[in-house]
Amino acid sequence: MIRIYYSKTQKEAAEKCANVIAELLKKKKDAVLGFATGSSPVMMYRELINKCEAGEISFEGVKTVNLDEYVGLSADHDQSFSYFMHDNLFNHINIKEENTNLPDGLATDLEAERRRYDGVIESMGGIDIQVLGIGHNGHIGFNEPADSFSKGTALVDLTKSTIDANSRFFESPDDVPRRALTMGIGQIMQAKKIVMVANGTAKAAILEDAFFGEVSPKNPASILQFFKGEVDVFLDEEALSLIMERHPEAVIK
Ligand code: GLP
Questions:
Q1: Is 87 annotated as catalytic?
Q2: Nearest to 205 by CA among 154, 240, 253
Q3: How far is the CA of 182 from the centre of ligand 1 (A)?
Q4: What number does the ligand 1 atom closest to the CA of 200 have?
Q5: 68: annotated active-site residue
Q6: Distance, CA 158 to ligand 1 centroid (Å)?
Q7: Using one digit for the tens of pLDDT, what is the confidence trace for 22-70?
Q8: Any idea which fold 2-252 has?
Q9: Closest C-alpha to ligand 1, atom 9
Q10: The pLDDT value given to residue 29
Q11: With a threshold of 0.85, does the pTM exceed it?
């Protein structure tokens, strides 16, 4: 069931999303969280840091598994997703480093790394909450538009749209990695609950299509319409603009 929550601002959406995660952590000290990168969840991570600093929540017993990593970037490269997670969250909360997991972008045997990450996800015994952003082309994790939905951890070629979108973080578009390892759609769909954060008008059309259009691997996020549990979507007014116009009844204020 998809529940789309209205927020006026990105900050408000981030607070609401962080509250959902905080409520889980208060009940379940050893929760398994699936994390995402990209600019969308940054404010939400800031809220989690604030709650941790205030003693409201603890990550002491929490385990995390991230969606994806660029192939070819080391964990300490400042554009790797490992670096991003440490910089935006892990370095500021009381999580144990050994309880955090990301694919290894520098693995020499990518097939073996793909299988290793399948094992990591499997060993978690179920992701309690998976955080998602959404790409301009509907990708979740790095599951790009394709002819089919990937089941397990996948090695993917990034599309031009993604390379262009992410080039803003690199000195030159040529520096953007061309491939990535990503948790598969099948694994995302096995999470117990999903929360999505997105903001800005650039995401308005793909979000409307994902939640109200046909379910197709051409818009990978559309598979969330078939998710068995709750998908709580936290959008700012800009990201919501088209949904508000076409499906106002679907928006929870
Ligand atoms: C990234 C990640 C996705 C993310 C998306 C959107 O590259 N692989 O998990 O949701 O692209 O990023 P942003 O939030 O910066 O628009």
A1: no
A2: 240
A3: 12
A4: 16
A5: yes
A6: 12
A7: 999 999 999 999 999 999 999 999 999 999 999 999 999 999 999 999 9
A8: Rossmann fold (3.40.50)
A9: 141
A10: 98
A11: yes
